[in-house]
Structures are given as C-alpha cells and as structure tokens.
Design brief:
The protein is of the alpha/beta class and 283 residues long. It folds into two domains: 2-137 and 272-282, 3-Layer(aba) Sandwich (Rossmann fold); 139-262, Rossmann fold. It is 29% helix and 23% strand. It contains eight helices and 14 strands. It has helices at residues 9-19, 57-69, 98-106, 139-147, 164-174, 216-227, 246-253, 274-282; strands spanning 2-4, 26-30, 36-40, 48-51, 75-79, 114-118, 133-136, 155-158, 178-180, 182-185, 191-194, 205-212, 233-240, 257-260. The strands form four sheets. The chain has a five-stranded parallel sheet with strand order 1-4-5-6-7, sandwiched between helices. A five-stranded parallel sheet has the order 9-8-12-13-14, sandwiched between helices. It has a two-stranded antiparallel ribbon with strand order 2-3. Strand 13 (233-240), helix 7 (246-253) and strand 14 form a beta-alpha-beta unit. Helix 1 packs across helix 8 (274-282), helix 4 (139-147) crosses helix 5 (164-174) and helix 6 packs parallel to helix 7 (246-253). The longest helix is centred in the first third of the chain and has 13 residues, at 57-69. It binds ribose-5-phosphate. The site of ribose-5-phosphate has 16 residues, from strand 12 and helix 6.
C-alpha cells in the first residue's frame, strides 16, 4: 500500500499505478489554531510505503504524523525532496546541524525500515538515518528529457562545483561536453560567478543543478552565459523549490525553459521520478 503525504499526492499516485498497489485515502486539514491534522481513511495494509516531500515545516509534521499512524508496520519511507538538507554542516559555532536533527526525529519510527530520498543536496545526510538509507539519482531521467529536445551544438554546465557530478552524468549520457562555473555565495539570496572556460558562443546550454530555490544561482548563471553569447539556455533541476519570485528571475535572466521533476509538484515538473522510486521500492 502506498500512502501519499499532502506534498506528494501526484507522485504517490504515479508510483502506486506503476506498482499496481493500492493508494490509501488520507484526509489532511488544518485546525483553527493552525495545527496540522491528518487521518488515514483506508484500512492500512502491510507493508506500507510513505511518500512525502518536506519543503516546509508543516510537511515535516505531516510526515511524522504518517509515521506515527504506521507504527508497528513494515514501512518504506520515501522523502523525494528532503528539506533542510542544505543545513548539513555546522558552519558557525552555535549553529545546529538541522538535517541531522530532522533525521533523528524520524529514526524512532524507522526500526527495520528503509529510507529513500532523491538527489539529496548533501549525501552525508543519509548517514544520519538509523535504517538503510539511499539517495536516488534522477539525473538520467532529466537527461532523457533533454535528449528529446532539438538542441544545437549543446553543452552541459554546472553552476558550481557541487553539481559537477550531476552535470557530468548528464553530459556522458547525452555525449555532450561539460563544464562548471565558479560560484561565490555572498548571502542567502546573493551569488556571483566567475567566467568559465568552455566557449558557449552560439551554442545551446543546459544548466544542471539539484535544486532551484530563490533562483539566484540559476539567474546569475543564465545572465553570465547569455553575456558570453550562449544561444538558448535551459535549466534542468531535480527539485523545483522555486520560492518567491524565482520564476520571474529566471525568465528575466533569459531562460528558454525550466525542466524539473515531480519531487515537488510544480508547473515545471514535467519529468516524473515515479519509475525511479517504484524501482527502489520493489528492489
Ligand atoms: C547549492 O549548492 C545548490 O546546489 C543550489 O545551487 C542552490 O541551493 C540553489 O539555491 P538558489 O536557487 O536559492 O540560488
């Protein structure tokens, strides 16, 4: 049985359809005081797979509620987008390692379970789970979508060193050249980039990254590449967090199109990770 949390209903439905498993009916509400309420209305079967991304604190509470309901059953946990994964280190004294704290909150429910995320920002986060935990790679799915597009003399770019592996995986699959930009982050919303080496003049460019949040990283990269004469610039990202005016920033910078997956269900989520998750569950 598949249980879809409120932030992953479409993805849970797609996974259930691929596996031919029942999709539980759940009710999600908010009490007048703002507290989250949920109820699984279907009779629970064993084993269960919970699929719930956690882009917000509320989504994390719903995940805890779902795990509580499923206590005593064999649970596979899938958190396609694991929020706070960028808080994976203690950067300054007095800071928490929030990603570790969140994994610790889930661990009491995960005895004998297994957990999956998709392209978690910092792979080290998976080591904080007490059960076997794996980050699945959606890059090949994004690459297949890129392959179906009519690109001209294309090059794959990573906006920073952190996404280089992802960009290389995509470039190898597509048999395209690959490079990265030097990124410096000045604040939560401000980044700058130094020029890179590959000549993009007149070429289509696909920038790969694990996530687009404020859009600051990608908007800066698009503007830089356009300035260097790139023809069309496409973005391929696993997690379309897209906070605030991110989409406006990307289009103002001159993006041709944004391609993302349904780890977060947005208008740009045209690539589904359902097959990836279904494969992992049935392994
Ligand atoms: C950073 O290392 C990540 O891979 C992304 O590049 C970054 O988190 C995107 O954030 P934003 O869209 O706010 O620049």
């Amino acid at each position: 049985m598949i249980i879809g949390g409120p932030s992953s209903q479409l993805l849970a439905g797609r996974v259930a359809a691929i596996l031919g498993q029942e999709l539980a009916l759940c009710d999600y509400k908010v009490f007048p005081d703002g507290e989250a309420y949920m109820q699984v209305l279907s009779e629970l079967e064993d084993p269960v797979t919970i699929i719930q991304s956690t882009p917000t604190d509320r989504d994390f509470v719903h995940l805890l509620q779902l795990l509580d309901v499923c206590q005593g059953r064999r649970v596979t946990l899938v958190v396609p987008y694991f929020g706070y994964a960028r808080q994976d280190k203690i950067f300054k004294p007095g800071e928490p390692m929030t990603a570790r704290a969140l994994a610790a909150a889930l661990n009491p429910f995960l005895e004998g379970s297994r957990a999956f995320a998709v392209n978690i920002h910092a792979p080290s986060v998976m080591s904080h789970f007490s059960c076997p935990a794996e980050s699945l790679d959606a890059t090949p799915l994004l690459a297949e979508q890129i392959r179906s597009m009519d690109l001209n003399d294309a090059v794959v770019i990573s906006p920073d060193k952190g996404a280089v592996n992802m960009a290389r995986t995509a470039a190898d699959r597509l048999d395209l050249p690959c490079d990265y930009l030097q990124k410096t982050r000045h604040s939560g919303t401000e980044v700058s980039m130094a020029p890179k080496e590959v000549d993009v003049k007149g070429r289509d460019v696909v920038i790969f990254d694990d996530m687009i949040a404020t859009g600051g990283t990608m908007a800066t990269a698009i503007a830089l590449l356009r300035k260097q004469g790139a023809a069309r610039v496409y973005l391929a990202a696993v997690h379309p967090v897209l906070t605030g005016s991110a989409v406006l920033k990307l289009y103002r910078a001159g993006v041709e199109a944004v391609i993302a997956t349904d780890t977060l269900e947005k208008a740009v989520s045209t690539v589904s990770v359902a097959s990836l998750i279904a494969g992992a569950i049935s392994r």
